[in-house]
Amino acid sequence: MACHTEELQQVGVLPWRIRRAGERKLFLITSRRRGRWIVPNGCPKKGYPLFFAASREAFEEAGIIGDISSVPVTTYRYMKVRDDGSQVACRGTVFGMNVRGTLSHWCEKGQRQRRWFSLEAAAGKLDDVELAEFVRELESDPERLEAGSSSNWRSLFPRPACTRKLR
Fold this sequence. Notes:
Elements: E1 8-18, E2 24-30, E3 37-38, E4 41-42, H1 50-62, E5 64-81, E6 87-102, E7 114-118, H2 119-125, H3 129-138, E8 150-152
């Protein structure tokens, strides 16, 4: 679905990594307006696979690069507050991303905070009940993050406009 229908289709990334001691960590960012802890997400791009748009959102919103699953790890529903204060129902399709690197400068650096959390702490920070419940379930089944085939971010898309030289 396009982003201007009754129910918005959103795509997102659940960024993760495994620490040397084997502990799994999740990477969350804050929303721009309300400062809530969320996963990088946005609208799909017409003509491209959903995981493509999810990977691009992770790069632009969180400044992360990595290997993204081409198969969603979960879906959830939530209410999005628009700029005018109205609310719209959203369906989020989330892809796991094994984070390989974080950038020190990225498109939305001045608009968001970002931080690594344990699975338990991330579940407690997320406002979205369904997504938080999925994260809680990862404690007993962490391999769910690694489901599906991986695609390297470099081959997915050209550099976004915010990283191109300004004239």
